[in-house]
Amino acid sequence: MPLKLNVITVSTRPGRVGPKVAQWFHGFAAAHGGFEVEAVDLDSFRLPIFDEPKHPRFQDYAHDHTKAWSASVASADAFVFVTPEYNYTPPPSFVNAVDFLFREWAYKVAGIVSYGGPLGGARAAQMEKLMLTSVKVMTVPEGVSIPLPTHMDKDGHFQPSPPIEASAKAMLDELVKWAGALKPLRAG
Asked: DSSP E strands: which ranges in 10-58?
């Protein structure tokens, strides 16, 4: 059975750029061939601020949005978060989505495609990696940082440069290795 990668569009903000970057990365990851790739848009789950009456470690969810989010995360061996940087930090949608679950994240691997100003979302990516370790997600040091709007064409489509594509390939190569290596831990 092939390893499964969820490419998660993190931004839920109206007018967001995330779906354009995620669409590119989804196609790039599919062409890479290391994973079965699924596009996941966090906005489609409509997660409110954490509203479950029980701690996520029990996996006893009361709400349909949580059950759907749980099934999506549980189905993957690896994740790539396509994320903006808001005020030098991760967007609240990322923090909330991670906090909604616990066991579903464990012993999986993640990479981050970040975008935003001159640093390409790098500050948010570093904080997201720290948060992911608390739910037992291994994060790879390889990542993709995209300064915007320099990589958008006049029609608003994302145009990756060769260095961005090289970074994406390096990250995917590492994700495949780690996802395979962690699979026995998830089976136990």
From this structure: 36-41
